[in-house]
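Sat 14:20. Reprocessing the chain from the morning session after the first attempt stalled halfway. Input below, unchanged.
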Amino acid sequence: MREQLARERQEREAAFALLEQERKFAELQAYRQQAVEQNRDNIIPQLIDYIQGNTPEEINESIAGLVERSNSILESAQSAIQQQRRDMPGVRATLPGVGPLETNSESRQFTAADIASMPMNEYAKVRTQILSNRAQGKTSGILG
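Finished this time. Tokens:
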């Protein structure tokens, strides 16, 4: 009978110990969840799973370390982006000329014989140089 009472007492003490440990575990998990929610904006989402600790103090230390790491990662990424932007070529202050004077370096006067004997493919190339603005259908407005 004494053995049975001793065994039942041990089982009861084990059950109370288990119940107490479960209560502490639930409190710690609730504290962890609350601390995570308070610091969610300061920690990179992929690092939240690394928050750990057996006491509220250890959880706070873990969160502080991950906040520092997150800030360091963000600073590194921002500096890399800024460096990349600095290395990109920007818009030039002056663009190279693309007008008829820059593309056609020769200023040639065509005679009537030159124009008459010119093949059509060559005439097509120099046509805009030969024809006047009025002949090309360009006018200078109402007054001209």
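The CA atoms of residues 57 and 63 lie 10 Å apart.
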